[in-house]
Structures are given as C-alpha cells and as structure tokens.
Amino acid sequence: MAAPFEILLDVDRDKRELHDIADSAFELVHHLERQLSAYIPESDVCFINATAADRPARLEPRIYELLKTAQRIHRETEGAFDITTGPLVRAWGFFQREGRLPAPSELEEARERVGMEFVHLDDETHSVRFAKQGIEINLGGIGKGYVIDRVVESLRDWEVRCALVHSGQSSIAVIGKPPAVRRAEGWRLGVADPRDDKQSLGALTLTDSTMSTSGNWKQFFKLEGKIYSHIIEARTGYPVRGMLSTTVIGRSAAETDALATAFFVMGAEKTRRHCEQRDDVGAVLVTGDSPEQIAVHAVGCTLEKGEQEQWTMLGKN
Amino acid sequence: MDNAREKLTRRSFLQTTAGAAAGAAMVGSALGSAAGEAPVAAEEVKEKGPLDDDRPFKLGIIGCGSQAVFNLMPSALRIKGIEFTAVCDIIPRRAEQAQKLAGGKAKVFDDYKDLLKNADMDAVMIVTPLHLHRPMVEEALANKRHVFCEKTMAYSIEDCKAMLKASIAAGRKLQIGHHLRYHPLYEFAKRHYIDAGLLGKVNNIHCQWNRNGTWKKRPEPGDEKVDFKKWGYEQLDHVVNWRLYKKYSGGLMTELASHQLDVVNWFLDAVPEAVVGVGKIDNKDGRTIFDNVHLIYEYPDEVQVTYESITTNSFNPFGLQAYEMFQGIKGTLVMAHLSNYVGLFFLEPGAAEKDWMPLAHKTKFPNENVPFKQHREAIVLNGTPSPGSRTEKVAGIDIVDVVDIKAARMREGFTTYQIELMEFRTAVLDGNRPTCDGIVGLRSAIPALLGNEAMESEKKVKVTEDMYSLT
Hints:
The complex is a heterodimer. Chain A is α+β, with helices and mostly antiparallel strands. Chain A is built from 7 helices and 14 strands. The longest helix of chain B is centred in the first third of the chain and has 25 residues, at 2-26. The A-B interface holds A 17, 20-21, 23-24, 27, 31, 35, 39-44, 46-51, 55-63, 125-127, 157-159 and B 51-52, 66, 70, 73-74, 77-80, 100-101, 103, 213, 217-218, 220-222, 340-341, 383-385, 410-416.
C-alpha cells in the first residue's frame, strides 16, 4: 500500500514466533495489495476498469464480496459512499495532489461517468459489468480497511488475543485489550485534531473494534478564497465543504473506512440519523468552515479526555 | 571453430529430441506432433485465444499453498468458464481455503491419487513441492489427465524426461508454469529489442534476485494436524518449509532462478553449454539448500550469463527487486517482472546514431523521435495502463523517452497466470501446442538443476547430449 502498514503485537509469547506471525501477515498484505491497487497494472481493480465495460469481469469470491459491501454501503448511505468517483477526482486534480477548479463542461463530462447504478454485480458468476464505457472503480475508500480486516482474521487464526493493526492511521483495528500489564479497559485511541495531527481532540476506548478517519488539514485546499476538501460528493460533483474530519468506530475496518468517507459527505445530521439505527457504529465529526471555528460532534460514542495510547511499532512497512 | 562445432552439436541435440518426440507421436500423441517444431512465436499463440472464449473448463488442483491460492486460483477465476471442481492438499486448512476460493463447489481430497482417479475435471494443475512433480504428473497421465505443472518442471533432468515421455505416450497435454513466457512486456522486448538487433551482439547477461528474509515459514494454526510421515515428510517443518531442504526442492535455483534462466533461454533461443558456481548457506537454521548463490553460465555464441540470488540483502542498483540485464555492444536492456510492467533500455557509448537509429526506425520502436543526444540516457518500456512519466531519472540516468506499449492483454490488466491458463484451456480443448510445453520446460529446468550440481560438486558442469535426448 502507499500508506505504511503496521502491526503491534503483545510480547506474550516467543519473540521469534511473533515475528513469524507478523511476516505471515505482511505477506498477506502484499498479496492483497496486488489485487487492490489502482497503480498495479494487473491488479483486480485495473483488470475490472480495463475490461468490465466490454464484458463481465469475473473475480475471486472475496474481492467480489468486497464490491458487494461497497454497493451495500452506497445504498445504506444514500450514495454518499461511491467507488466510481474517479473521473471527478481526476477533474479536480486530486490524483496529482493539486486542487484545481474544473471547467463546467469538464465537470459535466466527468459526472456522466460516475454512478454506482452503472456497476452491475452478478452473484451467480461473481462478475462485475459496467453498463457503459468510461466507468471506473477505485477501492481507495474501502480497500485499506478490507486489508486490515483480513489481517485481523489471520491474526485470530494464530490465536492472537492482543494486537493493534493500522494502515497509515487512517484505519485501525484492535484485538482484545492492551497488554495485561497495563490493566486498561480497552485501547485508548486518540481522535486527531484535523488542524494538527499531533494534537488530539480526545480519545475513544475500544476493544475488538475498528476505527477509521477521513480528512485532515493537509487534505484541504483553497481556491478563490473558498476551502475545499479532497472528498467529492458524487451527486453534485463538488468537493465537500464544511466538514473537517470524520472518525468512525465499528466492527469491520472495511465498513468504518467506507463510512468515514460517507459521513464526511452526509454531514452531522444525516450521520446522527444513520448511527441511531445501528448499535455497532459510532462517529466523531469535526465541522467548520475554517480552522478557527470548529465544532466536535460525538455520535453513539463518548470522546474522553486524558492520556492515550503511545505505541512503538513492531514490524515493518 | 570450437564455437561453430558446438552450435552444430547443439542443433543435433534438438533433432535428437525432436526425432524421439515424433517417433512417439506416431503411437498417437497430441503433444508429440508439435513437440519437435521450432518454437512458436509466443504472440501468435497468445492472440489465438479469443477474449470472449467462455467454454466451460473444469480444473482440479493438487497443492493449495500460497502459489495456488494467491496467484493461480484468483487468476484462473477471472477467466469465464473456468471452474475448480476438485482441490487437494494434505493440510486440511489449505484445502478448505482453496475450496472457499472455488466458491465452495469443489470436492476436497487429501490424497492426490483419489483426485486423479475420481474427480470430474478436464485437466489437473499440480502446484506441489518439486520432488512430487514427477510422481504426480506420471500418475495424472496414467489416468489420462491433461496436466499443468508448476515450474520448475521436476527435481532432476531424468524426472523431466520421464514426464515428457509419459505425456507423449499418453497423448495428453503437459504445460509447465514458466509464466514469464506469457508476459506481454517480455514478448515485446524479445521481439523489438533482442530479435530486432537493437542491442547488437550480446556478450553478457546478468540476472539478480536479491532479497532480505529467511524464506522460512512457521506452521500456521491447524497445520500440526497433518500426518506428515504418511505423506513422506520427516517432520512438520519440512511440509511447510520444503523449499529449504534438498530432499524436496532445489532451493533458490528451482524456486526463483528458474524463472529468470527461462527468460535467458527464451531470449537467446538456446540452452547453456556449461555452468560453474559457488553457493553457501547464510541462514544457519538447519536448511540444506544454498541461500546465497553465484553462478556463471556459458551459452552458445560466447554469451556469458552471471546469476546471483541472496537472502540477506535486498539492495540493487535499479531499485527493481529482481532483474535480467542483457548487455549488448549497442545497448543494455533491463527486464524486471516484479516491477509493474516496466523495462529499461540504455544506449551504449560508441553506438552512434548512424549505427543504431536505422534499426530503431526499421522496427518502429522506440518512437522515431527519440532525442538521443548523448549516451547514458534511458528509455523506459512502459506497459502500465497510464502513460509513463517523462521527467524522472532511473538509476541516476535521465529518461529520454517512455515507450507506452500497447499490448491488449497488458493494458487490460491480465496477469501472466491468467494468460497462461487461457492458453492451457485452448491447448486442452483445441489440441494446440502450449507455448511452454514439456520440451520448453525441460530446456528451462537444465540451467536451474545443473546450477545446483555445479555448486555442490564445485566443478564445471557441462550440458551433454543425453540431457535433451528422450532415448
């Protein structure tokens, strides 16, 4: 992955064995990256984008299930999460990491190539088909979470009872509670201040859960006096304004990863309504039009003050 | 003179092989009829298989380790019509994992003989430790099964020849998994750089696959349930780490080097004449294979090939994990299959435009406007779907041009495993000869297997006629 990927394991067993477990997990990460990356030409994502408009692209079951999950979250968030926004992201220059205001015609052209309704999934053959040319998918908003879920699954096979896994800290999963010597109720994970990653707004205490974050101050840009985020609302074709960051907790990193993007688009009110219908999802949203004036909304979870986890990493990128 | 004689002798080797194959073909072989022909240009074979071929093709797979579940099965499952109806592994966890991947429909076996006898399938894939290739392939052919067998073809040259003979006698296909033969960028480079003469006379080739990691795996949870003695292993560790022990594998030579030495064979259209080598063991954990190998091969036409693979340092000058570097008097070509469909070409000082550009123009590659002002500038062969960057440097050398290669299957994100398995279906259903059949597999096994022999004996090992002959 482009982001660092790290695994923290408790030293409750032989160190050599821990390294073997980590090695096996990183091997899995490596293989999954080769399936998911938009930058690896023979990845499943590139294969789908290159062929699905011409003929159904058939996939192995787990990647197919991931697309089903993406489709379900798209539906449940009324389109706020959308894996087809690539053409819009490109029009706004985000792939080149520079914001630019696209011409209206350019935006219109890009919008015509966006929409989950053009992505058809066939459960019988495990294949994906695009209903028209020019559609593309990007799993950047859900893939890192999926990889974390798979790693957690494999760590549980190893009977690991205490671990923390994260990918560039945008998604984190914890297994069990922190090492027993700390006598903690759970892992206290800081919610970063979107204005300064080194500061936190408070902490969430988690056990056997995942947490994902979208948005920080570096991912915004200013154009003609207005502040834009790097997250695009598929329905309007414009970057979201007024939301600075979203942090979502839940049981699956793929889902919290996707919901962090969805809630960013949905805003505080819709997010609150969404979370009320579920007992396994919570969120912390930071809203505001400028860094000077922010509001913090905790939905379905409690943001605590005080000390948070400081971890040193075991493993490698 | 010696060289000329050597070449003649080599030709007669090939004829010997061809003769034997043709002889057997008369007994009734689908494979044999094609076995002695000159190598078919890979692109012709490859493009024959139409993209919309969706004919049902039922596969069984023996050996469900990471090569199967991470590479072959996901690639096979991209191909419409292909279905896994049987999976087999002595480790139940692995067989279950493969069955899940197959959509839960496959029948699970622990004994390959049961699978070969009873499975409802069109062909079988053998993806097991090296020492098992021969017995499994022979058993499969005895059951009249078409076979795809992972590389390296077998544990010994004798084993390879036995498999080849058996496939001819059974009249069934035998394809070997040297997947780089199906790599569109390699096909492009072979055609437009090597064969077109852009490199000039190649005198030296260097291949490297350097990594930093022990290669040793720990048994995964559930593996301890395996009755390893029943399946011929001394201990559980040998089931998991078979690559580290001579009894089951040729180590780096058969598991990594054979890919690159296959490319050398292919690009030179030859097999080595002799090899010397030195090997040692850096990871002192009881392994019996060399994990630090250095070899020199002599190929016909005085081409010298140096090969190196180590396990305790991953540095390399191009920032590529593994590469094959072809050094001609006019230029250098660097191929790297692990690096996202990218190859590199460097023009050599002294290869003046008058000497080189006509060739480039004649072949239409690289593009005619390549502004080669000075030597030591690089061309990047870019096979990725997005146009390559034109501003970066590579190994500190300016990139003057990026050749965006338009190979349909590369642009469409096909994996090499996918392409080789599409060809395997065509070979089985239509009776075509696969690009990497048993003959190619045997030829490519020779440098890998003799490399080990040279390191172990500490002597120069010569390739002899009987290695090719089927008699």
